[in-house]
Design brief:
With 91 residues, the protein is an alpha+beta fold. The chain has helices spanning 2-12, 60-66, 78-90, and strands at residues 30-34, 37-41, 54-56, 74-76. It has a two-stranded antiparallel ribbon. The protein is elongated.
């Protein structure tokens, strides 16, 4: 009988909302070594374009200190930025 109540409880719960906006994206970018210099190359987190000038949740200083590109934030191209910000506004 307990199983029946648990099944009814699970069926009555609303389905989880899909993750959208900036929360759905992973940090994008990588460090490249050029001689003695280390450069951070960012690319769009949504489409992969190298032309991604818009950064969100960026912390380049700590990322450079740690050598971990995942801490450098989420970068987006102009087209994907419009889509992601629209998703953020809708949520």
């Amino acid at each position: 009988m307990t199983g029946l109540f648990q099944a009814a409880d699970l069926a009555a719960r609303p389905a989880p909302k899909p993750i959208t906006g900036l929360a759905a994206l992973n940090p994008s970018g990588r460090f490249e070594r050029h001689g003695k210099a280390v450069l951070f190359v960012h690319h769009c987190a949504k489409c992969g374009s190298v032309d991604a000038p818009f950064g969100y949740l960026c912390h380049l200083g700590p990322a450079m200190d740690a050598g971990d590109a995942r801490k450098a934030g989420i970068w987006l191209c102009a087209e994907c930025r419009d889509v992601v910000l629209a998703e953020e506004d809708a949520a």
